[in-house]
Amino acid sequence: MELDNAFKDSLIKLRRNLHAFPEQGFLEIRTANIVKENLTSLGYEIKSGLEVMNKDYLMGYPSEEAFKAHIDKLNQLNEALPDFKDGYTGIVATLDTNKPGPTIALRFDMDALPITESEDSNHYPTAHGFSSKNHGSMHACGHDVHTTIGIGLAKLLMDHKTELKGIIKLIFQPAEEGVRGAKSMVESGVVDDVDYFIGSHIGLNAKSNEIITSVKGFLASSKLDVEIQGVSSHAGAKPQDGKNALLAAATFVQQVYAIERHEQGASRVNVGTLQAGSGRNVIADKAYLQMEVRGENNIVNEFMIQRVYDIKSGIEAMFGVKINITKVGEAISIEPSENMEQTIYSLLKEKFPKLNIIPNETTPSGSEDATYYIDSVMRNGKDAIYMNIGSDHEYNHHHPKFDVKEHDMFNGISCMYEIVKLYNGN
Amino acid sequence: MELDNAFKDSLIKLRRNLHAFPEQGFLEIRTANIVKENLTSLGYEIKSGLEVMNKDYLMGYPSEEAFKAHIDKLNQLNEALPDFKDGYTGIVATLDTNKPGPTIALRFDMDALPITESEDSNHYPTAHGFSSKNHGSMHACGHDVHTTIGIGLAKLLMDHKTELKGIIKLIFQPAEEGVRGAKSMVESGVVDDVDYFIGSHIGLNAKSNEIITSVKGFLASSKLDVEIQGVSSHAGAKPQDGKNALLAAATFVQQVYAIERHEQGASRVNVGTLQAGSGRNVIADKAYLQMEVRGENNIVNEFMIQRVYDIKSGIEAMFGVKINITKVGEAISIEPSENMEQTIYSLLKEKFPKLNIIPNETTPSGSEDATYYIDSVMRNGKDAIYMNIGSDHEYNHHHPKFDVKEHDMFNGISCMYEIVKLYNGN
Amino acid sequence: MELDNAFKDSLIKLRRNLHAFPEQGFLEIRTANIVKENLTSLGYEIKSGLEVMNKDYLMGYPSEEAFKAHIDKLNQLNEALPDFKDGYTGIVATLDTNKPGPTIALRFDMDALPITESEDSNHYPTAHGFSSKNHGSMHACGHDVHTTIGIGLAKLLMDHKTELKGIIKLIFQPAEEGVRGAKSMVESGVVDDVDYFIGSHIGLNAKSNEIITSVKGFLASSKLDVEIQGVSSHAGAKPQDGKNALLAAATFVQQVYAIERHEQGASRVNVGTLQAGSGRNVIADKAYLQMEVRGENNIVNEFMIQRVYDIKSGIEAMFGVKINITKVGEAISIEPSENMEQTIYSLLKEKFPKLNIIPNETTPSGSEDATYYIDSVMRNGKDAIYMNIGSDHEYNHHHPKFDVKEHDMFNGISCMYEIVKLYNGN
Amino acid sequence: MELDNAFKDSLIKLRRNLHAFPEQGFLEIRTANIVKENLTSLGYEIKSGLEVMNKDYLMGYPSEEAFKAHIDKLNQLNEALPDFKDGYTGIVATLDTNKPGPTIALRFDMDALPITESEDSNHYPTAHGFSSKNHGSMHACGHDVHTTIGIGLAKLLMDHKTELKGIIKLIFQPAEEGVRGAKSMVESGVVDDVDYFIGSHIGLNAKSNEIITSVKGFLASSKLDVEIQGVSSHAGAKPQDGKNALLAAATFVQQVYAIERHEQGASRVNVGTLQAGSGRNVIADKAYLQMEVRGENNIVNEFMIQRVYDIKSGIEAMFGVKINITKVGEAISIEPSENMEQTIYSLLKEKFPKLNIIPNETTPSGSEDATYYIDSVMRNGKDAIYMNIGSDHEYNHHHPKFDVKEHDMFNGISCMYEIVKLYNGN
C-alpha cells in the first residue's frame, strides 16, 4: 500500500504539530485531545481514562504542582482541550468490523522527555520552525512520530474497513518514558481479548528503509525513588546527635553498585541523581535518590530489586535512618512469538521488495514497557511482537538534537497496514 | 557607665530596623550604609571597601546572580543606599584622639543567615513586628545586635572623647557566617597597628547578665566546595563509557568521614550538601558537595585538609573524574592573651558588681573568623581577646526562632566602654 | 574402537596411582616422571621442561618453600624420580609417522587442587583405598583421569601406528588450576605447527555416556595477587602517623566489586582471600589479597583489569600506600572451529551409536587455559576445539567428595582415537 | 629509704630471670609460681586463682591449644611449677599488721607481649644474656620490672612490719596487655575493703629519676573480636548464591572508621587484623577481625561500641551474613584522687630531694586496666591513684628493643615504701 501525497502531507503537518508541543508522561493532555478528536471523527469507538487505565498500577504519576504548571501553560495556548486534565491520558480506539475474526492490537506511545531541544539552526525541527514550544520538554525519542503513525494507520484502516474482519484496537499510551504507563493499561484488561499484538518504535539505530520484524533484547527494569530521612545536628558542636542521611545515601550508592553479578544474565544498576542536605555545617537530615536496575531477564531484575531492599534494611540499621523506596516505573523482559516473527518477515519481504527487512535483533539494549502487553498476550497463548521502523538519525535517542527522517513513518504505516490485512483481511 | 533611656530606646529601634532586613555575607549593602551614615555623622573617620579588604583573600564571594537578586530587592525599598553595591562592605571607623596612647580595636560582624525566620506569634520579633522582611534570610545569630552594640559604643566613646587618648578603631565586618570575611580585612592590614583587640559575641548559651571575659575553645575550620566533573553515558546501553561523578562523590563522602583521628586534638568533618546527576538512567557527569573540616587547633585542621586532598587525588585516579576544590571559608584556632583576660576580668568584677563575670570558657565549640585578628595581633606581640555577652535564648543560634534578650546589649556596650577607658583613658 | 579388559584394568590402576598422590601446579614432579616413563617406553619422542615451556610466561610459579616442602614429601616415597625437580613439568610426546599428513595435538592437564580429600567411607576413592596420600592436595577436578586418558590414548595410537600418517603430539601440561600453565607452553611454540588441536575435560555436569563435541562458553579470566604496603603506627597514640593498609584493602575490595557492567558481555569479579595487619592496636602496614576478574570475552576481561589498575592508583593516592599487583594466572575466551565441531559431531554420531553425542554447549561457565592453544591455532587459520567427556558426578568439581565414574575415561580414549584416525588415518 | 646493695643485686637477678622467660596473659604460670614462692617465704598470706578472680568477667582467655603449647614449653624447663596451670594466675598477698589502720593496696602486672625480642647485640638484655628464651614472647612493656618491684616492696615492708599498722595488700595481676585481667580481679572483690590504692608503671616516656605522682589521661577502651559467617559459592558460576563475608568485612571496616566524632571527647577506632576467605575463586564464607575502640571518657567509648553494634546490624541485613562480636578486653577512664595526688606529691618532694617529682600528667595516651581498681575504690569514696616511675628508654614500649634502666626500679620501691609508711605507718 503506497500512501498518497495529500495524506502524507497531512501526517507531516500533524507530526510537526505534536513535535512543537511535547508533553511529558501523564501530562499528554493536548496530545490526547488531538488523538481523541482525530479518532472520533474517523468513526472509532473511543474508551479513555480510567476505562482503560487501572489506577492501582500507576507508576510515577506527577505531583499536583507539575499538573498545575502544565495546565497553566496549556491555558496560554487558547485551545479547546476538553478532556484529560486529570492525567489519565490513555486511549483505546476500536474498529469493530462486526465480522467474525481475530482481535489485533497495536500500541503507540505519546509522551515526551524532560530535555531542552536544541536551538541550533542545523537541527531540522529548529530550522523548520517546529521545535519545542514547551521549554524543557522535547520529543527526543520519536513518540510524536509514533502517535502520528497510529493516527495515520487509523485513517487507512477505516478507509478500507470493508476489506477487514474481526476487531482492530489502537492503543495510545501515556508515559512510556520511565516505563510508567503500560502496566496500568494492561492491568485494566485492554489486551485480554487480543489475539495478535504489535508494539513498535522508530529509529533505534536501524537505518532508513530498514524494518526489523522482531526486537527481542529488552532488559527488564525497575525505576526506584529512594527517600532517606535522618536527623540533622550541628556538625561542629553535636556530631554524635545526627543521623546522617547524606552519608547513608553515599553508602547506599556504594553498595548498590557492588551488587553481585548473576549467573542467569546481565544486569545493570544506576543511581542517576542524588540530592542531600541543607547546609555545609549541618548533618544532613534528608537525601533523595533516583535509581534504576535492569536485568537481561525478569529473574535477574527481581534479584537486583531484592538486593536493593537488603541494602535499604542494612543502611537503616547502620545509620538509624528511615528509607522509603517507591517504584516509579517498571518494564519486563519478553519472549515474543517466533511464529509471528516468521510470518510477518515473509509477508514484508514479499510486499516491500525495496525495503531491507531484517528478521530480528537480539542484542540487549534499553527497556520498554510495551513488554507488559507482549507478556500478557503471550501468557494467554496468543501472539505478540515488537517491531522497529528504521530511520537514519545522526544523534542518539534522548539527545537535544535527536531527529528521525519523518518520511520513514510512512514505511511504518504501510507495513502495519499490511500486517493487519494479513491477520484481519477478509 | 549606665546608659540613659533615650539612648537605649534609639538603640532598640536601630537593632529592630537591622533585624527586619537581614542581609547575608557580602550582601550587607543596606546594613553597611546604615553603619557608615551613623558613624560619619558621629564624626568618625571612615575607611571602607577595598581600603580595608584585600581582594586576594576573599572567600565565598557571592555569584553575580546573588548580587542581582539582592539589589533588586533593595531597589524595592526606596531607600537611598549610595554605597557598597559592589559587596565590599567592610568598614573601619576611627576615632583619633590626637593624644599619645595605644591603639585599641573592636570588631563587629554584620551578616545574616540563609534561614527563614519563624512566623510563629510566640516568636518575639514576629510578635513585635520586626521579623525578617527579606524572606529566606534571618539574623539568627545576633549579628544585628553586634552591629548595634558597635554603633552604640561609637556614640558613647565620641561623647567622652576628651577622656580618651590614643586611637580607637571600630571594625564592621561582612560575612562572618561561613567564616569568610575576616581574613580579607586582616590581610588589608587593619589590625597591623593595634595594641589591644577585642572580638565579641552575644548569647552562646551564657545567661543574661553573665559576661565571659575570654572565650578560647574555637575550632580551626576550613569550608570547601567540591566540584566533580565526570562523563555521562546511558546507564543501560553504555555503562562502561561513563565516568560516574555520583559514585565518585559517594566514595569521596565515605572516605572523608573515615579520615584518621589525630593525636593532637579533636577534629570534625561534615559533607553538608551533595547534588549530583541529571537523570535516572544517565550516568551522572557532575556532582557538587559543600563540606567543612575542623580541628581543635590549626595543626589538626591542616591535617584534615591534607587528607581531603589525598582523597581527591585518589578519587580522580579511581574514577577518571576531575575534581576542583575551592576554599570558601576559613577560621583558625587561637591562644588569646592571658594578661588581658586577667586585667579585664578584674576590671569588670569591680565595675559591674551586679553582673556575673566569668574568667574564661575553654570547651571546644564552633568556629569564628575573629580568630584571624586575634592571631595577627598576638603574633605582633600585642594583646587580643574574645569575650561573650550572656543573654538568655530559648532556642539555639541558627534556629528559626533564635532570639536574645535585646537589653543585654547594653551590658555589652557598658563593658566595652569601660575596657576602652581602661586602656585608652587619660 | 573398543578397549580390551586388560588395557582397561591397567588404566584404572594407573589412574588410582595418580589419584593417590595428587600434586599441585608446577609441583607435578612424580606425575610428570610417570608420564615421561610411560611415553618413553611406548617409543614417543619426548621434549620436556624448558624445551616446551617459555619461562617468560610462567604465572603463579610456587615459592622455594613450597618446592622444598613437596620434595621432602617425595623423598619419603622412596621412588626414583629422576626428572622435573625444577618444576618445569611440561611434556610434549610426539609420534611422527614419517608419512606426509597433518599435525594433530591433544592436551592433557596433570595438576591437583589445594583441597583436603574427604575421608568419608562413602567417598569412592576412600572406600577403595586410593584417596590422597598427599594431605591437603586432591585430584578434585579429574586431572588424574585426564593424564590417564592421555597415556591410554598414547598406547592405542602407537599400537596402530601403521594406520596413521602425519604427526601426533600429546601435550601434558602443568598448572591448569589457576589457569597458570598453558600460556608458557603455547609461547614456547608447541602448537605453532599444529593443524588440529583438541582440548578436553571430564565431567562438567554432563552425564556418563554423553560427549559434548564443542564447549564454547569459557570466560576470559585473570588471576591477580595484590600486596598493599602501608606504614604501621600505634592506633591509640599516633593514629595520624599510619598508612592504613587494612583500610586501604577494605576500600579496594569495595571498589572492585563496584566496577561498572560492560555492554559487550557478562563480567565477574571476586576477592577470594584477604589477610591484613599484625595486631589489634596497631595500624596495619600490610595487606594481601587474592582476586580474579572474568569476562564473557577478552574485551570485557581487559576492561575489568584496567579498572582494577585504576582503583589501585586511586587507593595509593588516597591512603599513601604502595600496591603491587602480580598476574598469577590467565585464560582467554575462544571462538573454536565450527567446521571441526560439525565434522567431529558427525563422526562420533556414526561411530558411537550408544553414546549421546551433543554438538555444543555455550553457557558461560568457568575458565580454562586450554583456550590459549585454541586461540593460537585458530589465529594460524587452523582448527581447534574443546570437548567434554560426560561422567556422572554426585558432587561438584572442587568438592572434597568430587569423583567421576572412572570407566567413562574409556569413552574419552575411544572418541579421541577415532578423531585422530579421522584426521591422521592413512 | 635507701636499699642496700645485696638486696639490689638480688632484685636485678630476679628481674633478669623473669625477663628471660616472658609469659603472655593468663599463661604467667612460671611467673606466678615465682611470685607465690617468694611471697609465701616472706610470710605473706596468699590468695590466688579463683579466690581472687571472678570467672564471669574473664576476657580474652586463651584457647586450649595455647595452654597446651605453653605447658609443653614449661615442661622442657625442668622446674617445679606446682600451681597455676589452669591459667588463673592472679595473686593477692596480704600483710595484716593486726593493728588498727587503713587498708592499702598496690597492683603489679606480670604478663608479656607477643613480640619477638631483638637479638641485636646492642640490645641490653641480649648483650647481658637474659633476653627472651620463650621465642615469640617478650617483656617489651616492663611488667618484669613491675613484678620485681612488687616482690622487692614485699620484702621491705615485711622487714619493717613492726613500724606498720592496718593491712597491706599486694595484687599481682595477669593479662594487663589487651586490658583483659583486671576486671575479673576487681569483680572478685579484692579492693572492696581498700582505703588507698596505687597502680603504677615504669617508663612511659618519663626520664630516669622522674616520678609522676598521678597519671590521668587514660583512654577508655574496648577490644572486640568480630566473626562474620557468610555462605560460600563459586565466584564464576554462581556469584549470586554467596553471602560474601569478605565484602561484608570490607564494608564493616569502612563504616567503623567513619563513626561520628563525639562532642564529649576524643575517640579512636582501629581494625588491626582481618583474615577472610579460603580461595581466589570462591566467595568467602568467613571473616575474622580484631578491633578496638577508645574514648577520652567512658561515655565516648560506650558511644563507639554502640555504633559498632549498629554497623553490625546493618551489615547483617545488607549481606545476609551473621556476625558475632566478643569483647576480649576493656579498660575505662578514671578520675583519680586529687587529695592523694597532693599528699603524695608533697611527701615525695620532701623525702626524695634528688628525684624530679612531677605532680601529674593529663595527656591522653594509651589504656590501662588498673583503671578498674581505681574506679571501684573511688566509687566507694576512698582514694586511688596511678603513678609513673620514670626511666630512660631509647625505644618505645612494645618495640623489640624496648628496655628500661633497671636500677630505676629501686626508685619505685623506695617511693612506694614511703607512701605505705605515710598511710600505714604507726
From TrEMBL, chains A, B, C, D:
<keyword id="KW-0479">Metal-binding</keyword>
<feature type="binding site">
    <location>
        <position position="177"/>
    </location>
    <ligand>
        <name>Mn(2+)</name>
    </ligand>
</feature>
<feature type="binding site">
    <location>
        <position position="143"/>
    </location>
    <ligand>
        <name>Mn(2+)</name>
    </ligand>
</feature>
<dbReference type="GO" id="GO:0005737">
    <property type="term" value="C:cytoplasm"/>
</dbReference>
<dbReference type="InterPro" id="IPR002933">
    <property type="entry name" value="Peptidase_M20"/>
</dbReference>
<protein>
    <submittedName>
        <fullName>Putative peptidase</fullName>
        <ecNumber>3.5.1.-</ecNumber>
    </submittedName>
</protein>
<feature type="binding site">
    <location>
        <position position="141"/>
    </location>
    <ligand>
        <name>Mn(2+)</name>
    </ligand>
</feature>
<feature type="binding site">
    <location>
        <position position="201"/>
    </location>
    <ligand>
        <name>Mn(2+)</name>
    </ligand>
</feature>
<dbReference type="Pfam" id="PF07687">
    <property type="entry name" value="M20_dimer"/>
</dbReference>
<dbReference type="InterPro" id="IPR017439">
    <property type="entry name" value="Amidohydrolase"/>
</dbReference>
<dbReference type="GO" id="GO:0071713">
    <property type="term" value="F:para-aminobenzoyl-glutamate hydrolase activity"/>
</dbReference>
<feature type="domain" description="Peptidase M20 dimerisation">
    <location>
        <begin position="224"/>
        <end position="305"/>
    </location>
</feature>
<keyword id="KW-0378">Hydrolase</keyword>
<dbReference type="GO" id="GO:0046872">
    <property type="term" value="F:metal ion binding"/>
</dbReference>
<dbReference type="InterPro" id="IPR052030">
    <property type="entry name" value="Peptidase_M20/M20A_hydrolases"/>
</dbReference>
<dbReference type="InterPro" id="IPR011650">
    <property type="entry name" value="Peptidase_M20_dimer"/>
</dbReference>
<dbReference type="Pfam" id="PF01546">
    <property type="entry name" value="Peptidase_M20"/>
</dbReference>
<feature type="binding site">
    <location>
        <position position="398"/>
    </location>
    <ligand>
        <name>Mn(2+)</name>
    </ligand>
</feature>
<keyword id="KW-0464">Manganese</keyword>
<dbReference type="GO" id="GO:0016805">
    <property type="term" value="F:dipeptidase activity"/>
</dbReference>
<dbReference type="GO" id="GO:0046657">
    <property type="term" value="P:folic acid catabolic process"/>
</dbReference>
<dbReference type="InterPro" id="IPR036264">
    <property type="entry name" value="Bact_exopeptidase_dim_dom"/>
</dbReference>
